[in-house]
Every structure is written in structure tokens, then in C-alpha cells.
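Example S7 (C-alpha cells).
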């Protein structure tokens, strides 16, 4: 411990990380540098400065990372149509490598000996933060208080605050939040409380970003998304930055009851966990991206991408964003997006997302060939006979050898 003179802490200004500041100061007798990331969580991050100052912190970093987050992390992930275990759009997972990157950058800038975070020993975030940090600075020291201290509950954290004269909003309210929440521009997540029973339905009051499908407007909302090389660059003809695109889609989607999810997922550390998520913009992005790919991607390239995606999703979920294998997959994915440009028209109605139109100058859809009307000789239907017989050849041979394919 005597070797640790300065620590960079990922700091939210909430109960846990406020306790961690004082605990680091006392346990390690070190200087604490706080880093607060604005990833579009929808709450003011500047108040974290006053809270950190009150705890005696001299070096305070509050960084607006919204554009970098969407441009360099969310967009590349959505080029792969990434979904974990068939449903989860990885809103928390994809934010962690950026936070790790900035923690290491600040540690280098300030000459810190270590970094620290407030992730618990039960969750995935400890893995994601630390894998990212070790990848970017192999010899970095990492302090994870939840794996070291004897503060095991909210009540013990509150007692620590009272004993150390730490002012936190939680203490003022004298009220326990029913959920553990994490938010950024891609999503907001909810865990704990009544959600720890996977049979109990989430309360309607819990959801913050979306109306219920039942309460959504009675008229559908149409939007047109314009793509360039796999990324959305405009909505309804208006050019936008990546962060503005996602913020706009969150608003439109939330107003139409889009993007709610209730799942039980398999954490990397081994346990199952129930979580609820709101990802209105991301849900629209996923549906629309698959639509523009449907007319611009070669069939086998599209199918290969679909085969690669679960591995890519698992790498992000488990914290391996900075790994060689993720970067290799990303190069293949980005290569596939060279011609994924054009427009997609989406209809939103009471929680549903429908693709109702797609067009592209790079389209591989050939109406002259696909038509059910007279194709003027563009496609010779008799070619299909040989194609079918060649594909059936191995099964025909097996049948002539007496193999009964109707038996198990």
C-alpha cells in the first residue's frame, strides 16, 4: 500500500464512489484523482465536481465523451448487428472500454500509480474495466474496493458516510433507491429490488425513457434513416453527428413505446442475473441496419457476418474490446460495410418497429430478375433443374445405398 501515492478513480458522485474516495485516502494514504464521464446518461455530471472538492480532491476530470462513445464504440458495434444471447444490445458493456481507456490516459497524464472503480465483485463490470486497463497499460495497479473492504451493504456504506462526515444525496433522502441503474446514450439498465425475482413483472413507474406501448400515440410515426458505409448520417434528410443521431432516435423511439426489454442473462462471472433495459434508439438502429444490409450485402457475406456476430457479441460482453480477436473481427465487419449506404424508412407504432422501405444506389436487388411478371429472359428458370439435381446428388446416392432417412 505504501507504494500507492496517487489513484485515478472512476467517479460518479453517488454513494458508492463517494465512500471510495475517502476509503482510498484513509486506507492507502494516497491522493485521489476523480474522473467523471459524460456518456449521455441524462443527468448533470458537473455536480460531481463540487462533491469531489468537498472530499478534498484536487485533480478533477469531467469529460464529455458522448461523440467519441457513439462514433468509436456504438457505431462499430452496430455495424455487426450485435446482440448478446439473442436480445441484449450491450448498452452497459460497450461503455466500459471507453471508461478504461480514459482512466489509463488520466493516470498517465497525472503520474498516478493506480486506478480504481466502484464495480462489485459479483458483476461483469469489474472484468470489463480491468481487462481494458491491463490491455492498455499492462503493469497498472488496480484497486477494487468492493473486493477489499468490509462494507457489504447500503446500510454499512451509510454508516461510513455518517462516521466520516460525507454528504451524499442518498443520505439526505433517507430513502433506498429500489433499483441499481446505469445509463448512457445507448441505454438505461435496471437491476436489484423486485427484479431479483424473475417471476415478478417490472413496475410501470420504473421505466424512465419510454412510454408503455399501450400509452403510445394512436398514429404511427415514420422516420427515414440515411446510411453511409454502415453508419447513420442523417434522419429525415437532416445531417447529424453520431451522438445526435442516437439521442434523437432515443427520443422518437421512447415516445412510441419502443425499446423495452426484460431478460435473464448469463454473466461472465458465472451467475444468472435478471435485468431490464430501455434501448429505444439502439432497437431502431438494429432493425434499420439489417434492412439496409438486406439490399446491399452479398448473400454469403451477410451470412458470414451473422455467424461471426455471436462471437463478437460475447467478446464485448465479457470485456475483450481491446483484444486482438475483436479487432480482427472488426476489420472484417468494417470491410463488409463498404457498400452499405442508402435509406431505410421505418414505421414506429405502439412499441413495434417495422421496416416499410429501403433503397440504395448500391442495391443488389434486381427487379428485372426478381419479378413475378415477364422478366424478358433475364432469368432462365430451366437452369434451376440442374442446380437442384446437383444439390440433391449426395442424398440420392445415400438413398440408393439403402439408407432410410426417415429413421433416426
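Recovered sequence:
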Amino acid at each position: 500500500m505504501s507504494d500507492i501515492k496517487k489513484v485515478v478513480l472512476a467517479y460518479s458522485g453517488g454513494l458508492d464512489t463517494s465512500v471510495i474516495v475517502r476509503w482510498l485516502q484513509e486506507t492507502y494514504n494516497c491522493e485521489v484523482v476523480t474522473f467523471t464521464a459524460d456518456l449521455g446518461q441524462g443527468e448533470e455530471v458537473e455536480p460531481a465536481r463540487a462533491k469531489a472538492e468537498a472530499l478534498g480532491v484536487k485533480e478533477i476530470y469531467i469529460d464529455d465523451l458522448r461523440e467519441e462513445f457513439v462514433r468509436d464504440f456504438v457505431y462499430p458495434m452496430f455495424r455487426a448487428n450485435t446482440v448478446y444471447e439473442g436480445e441484449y444490445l450491450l448498452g452497459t458493456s460497450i461503455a466500459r472500454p471507453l471508461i478504461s481507456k480514459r482512466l489509463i490516459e488520466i493516470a498517465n497524464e497525472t503520474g498516478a500509480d493506480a486506478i480504481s472503480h466502484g464495480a462489485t465483485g459479483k458483476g461483469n463490470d469489474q472484468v470489463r474495466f480491468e481487462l481494458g486497463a491491463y490491455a492498455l497499460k499492462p503493469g497498472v495497479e488496480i484497486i477494487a474496493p468492493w473486493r477489499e473492504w468490509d462494507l457489504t451493504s447500503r446500510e454499512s456504506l451509510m454508516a461510513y458516510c455518517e462516521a466520516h462526515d460525507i454528504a451524499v444525496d442518498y443520505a439526505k433522502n433517507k430513502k433506498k433507491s429500489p433499483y441499481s441503474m446505469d445509463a448512457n446514450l445507448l441505454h438505461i439498465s435496471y437491476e436489484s429490488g423486485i427484479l431479483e425475482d424473475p417471476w415478478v413483472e417490472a413496475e410501470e413507474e420504473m421505466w424512465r425513457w419510454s412510454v408503455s406501448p399501450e400509452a403510445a400515440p394512436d398514429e404511427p410515426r415514420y422516420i427515414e434513416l440515411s446510411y453511409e458505409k454502415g453508419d447513420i448520417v442523417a434522419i429525415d434528410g437532416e445531417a447529424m453527428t453520431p451522438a445526435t443521431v442516437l439521442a434523437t432516435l432515443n427520443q422518437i423511439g421512447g415516445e412510441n413505446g419502443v425499446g423495452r426489454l426484460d431478460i435473464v442473462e448469463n454473466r461472465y462471472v458465472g451467475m444468472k442475473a435478471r435485468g431490464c433495459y430501455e434501448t429505444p434508439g439502439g432497437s431502431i438502429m438494429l432493425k434499420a441496419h439489417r434492412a439496409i444490409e438486406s439490399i446491399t450485402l452479398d448473400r454469403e457475406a451477410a451470412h458470414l457476418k451473422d455467424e461471426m456476430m455471436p462471437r463478437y457479441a460475447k467478446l464485448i460482453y465479457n470485456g475483450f474490446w481491446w483484444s486482438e480477436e475483436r479487432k480482427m473481427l472488426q476489420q472484417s465487419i468494417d470491410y463488409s460495410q463498404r457498400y452499405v449506404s442508402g435509406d431505410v424508412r421505418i414505421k414506429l407504432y405502439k412499441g413495434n418497429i417495422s421496416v416499410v422501405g429501403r433503397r440504395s444506389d448500391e442495391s443488389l436487388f434486381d427487379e428485372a430478375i426478381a419479378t413475378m411478371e415477364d422478366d424478358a429472359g433475364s432469368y432462365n428458370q430451366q437452369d434451376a433443374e440442374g442446380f437442384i439435381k446437383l444439390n440433391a446428388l449426395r442424398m440420392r446416392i445415400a438413398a440408393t445405398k439403402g439408407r432410410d432417412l426417415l429413421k433416426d
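Notes on this example. The domain at 6-64+93-177 is CATH 3.40.50.620 (Rossmann fold).
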